[in-house]
Amino acid sequence: QLQLAETGGGLVQPGGSLRLSCAASGFGLDDYAIGWFRQAPGQEREVVFCISSGGLIHEYLESVKGRFTISKDNTKNTAYLQMNSLKPEDTAVYYCARSPIVCFDNAEYFDFWGQGTQVTVSS
């Protein structure tokens, strides 16, 4: 059974850190690219990062450069999004999704999605 399960969201103060996890089951991260997306209320879903099956990292969002990083552990079949120096504008639901081909900066190329985890940055 295919599953992507995001965990690690929550409420954090500005300047704080969170690490999101995306645990995959039913397929291997060594065969698929994994993207991290976010969607804030009333806004379009945007792609943040993507990591290819071979571990190549694609960074798409200028506003998170130097603060967020993506990684994965194929032995745990889990991808991660490390978020540091969080800002209120990072508040969103964060999703992971898989791409059967390569990384794209377009959500339509991702064929399976997790349920999302809420990240709220507020004092």
Walk me through what this model shows.
The model has no long low-confidence stretch (mean pLDDT 96). The strands form two sheets. Strands 2, 4, 5, 6, 9, 10 and 11 form a seven-stranded mixed beta sheet that branches. Strands 1-3-8-7 form a four-stranded antiparallel beta sheet, with no helix packed on it. It is mostly beta strands and 123 residues long. The termini are far apart. A hairpin with a 5-residue loop joins strand 5 and strand 6. It has strands at residues 3-7, 10-12, 18-25, 33-39, 46-51, 57-59, 68-73, 78-83, 92-99, 112-113, 117-121.
What is the structure about, briefly put?
This protein is mainly β. Helices cover 0% and strands 48% of the residues.
List descriptors.
123 residues, mainly beta, seven-stranded mixed beta sheet, four-stranded antiparallel beta sheet, 11 strands, 48% strand, globular
- Percent strand equals over 45%
Unreliable sequence segments: none
Helix content: under 10%
The Rg value, from CA coordinates, equals 13 Å
The total beta strand count reads 11
Mean pLDDT: 96
The separation of the N and C termini measures 40 Å
Count of runs of 4 or more consecutive helical residues: 0
What's the oligomerization state? single chain
Overall 3D shape: globular
Task: Supply the helix-strand structural class.
Answer: mainly beta
Largest sheet at a glance? 7 strands, mixed
Sequence of secondary-structure elements: EEEEEEEEEEE
